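Closing statement on the 4'-deoxy-4'-aminopyridoxal-5'-phosphate sub-project.
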Amino acid sequence: MNVTTENEITATAAFDVMRYRADFPILGRHVHITSKSPGRQLVYLDNGATTQKPQQVIDAITHYYSHYNANIHRGVHALSQEASAAYEAARETVAHFVNAASAQEIIFTRGTTESVNLVAHAWLRSRLNAGDEVLITAMEHHSNIVPWQLVCEEKGATLKVVPVNDNGELDYEAAAALLTSRTKLFAFTHVSNTLGTVNDVQRLTAMAHAQHIPVLVDGAQAAPHLRINVQELGCDFYCFSAHKTYGPTGIGMLYVRGELMREMQPYQGGGGIISHVTFEKTTFVEGPLRFEAGTPNIEGAIGFAAALDYMNAVGLPAITAHEHDLLTYTTAQLEQIEGMRIIGTAPCKAGVISFVVGNLHPYDVGTILDQQGVAVRTGHHCTQPLMQRFGVPGTVRVSFGLYNTRSDADQFITALHKALKMLA
Ligand code: PMP
């Protein structure tokens, strides 16, 4: 599967990155300002951890608080109705973004982590028995490992793992062999936050579905970079966090394919999810509200929708192509560096590059890059088992967003050369 088509390459040529950069006020700032120094112009290459926010998102949240802040769903007054309408409109926007059949298939959560935990508890837990298995992969973020591990431990089930090869690609044949009648769920990432590898979700889902095994896809690193179409992917659960798609923190989504939502038990008890309560028995509403107990993150949902509107306006194919250009441009320069080891060399990658140089500690490299204004991530990236697989304690990770430029890449490479000289 190649993520860059000819149309998308044309889109790159027309991609007005400077226009989009102007939408992100934070990109104009300097870091490490002192009384003696104007500091360094920020070069932000830590988008895998979180993205910066465009003014459109900041304005949508400010507008909500300045004009129609109210609690939702239970008020008859004008502000409550406006806030409720905006919250439900946000659900529609998220549904369109992933091409869900209905907004009723979208649950608002705190983010990817909560989405995975929700499925682990509201869906899997009551179905899992001793001797059953949950299949994940060796490239999962801790968020897509630990929730399953906890439920498996409680139920006496086993967590099985699809291995990755030296390029950081999944072993699809091993996956096929590991999917058995004991497997109760296959959970895997769409895009690896450490390797950048784009997994073939359709192929993996088809393999699992051939044996009637439901599939959860962690889309935290895919939604910012690729067009998501859950109906085409065919998966049963799909989730991502707003803060990685230019939206606010504390909000995310969980897509649950129609019928499965009806099989899920309430995740948390509380207001907003009930149809009737007595001290003897509570009955619950149907649909996503059943899983959104308490006052939800209303501003978050509104900001989330504004962020997805923003991405749609820029255009997903154009974003994919632009970031692909940055990926190939930067990778080519990194490959010239002596002692460079790029961890994750799959042919199909999103805009993420992890690397180590010689025996240098990633933390030291990252610190010197930061002194020069270049923000990257260092460490295990919440993928410790993957670090063990590649025999490294951590990596330096560069991850691109739609507002990054070749000039950002050049500044990073210059700063890296300086860091390597200082650490030599
Ligand atoms: N999965 C992947 C692949 C991620 O990159 C991340 C965030 N680094 C998560 C899950 C967890 O996302 P959040 O912290 O927003 O819940």
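Residues 202 and 234 are 7 Å apart (CA to CA). With this model delivered, the sub-project is considered complete and its resources will be redirected to Aim 3.
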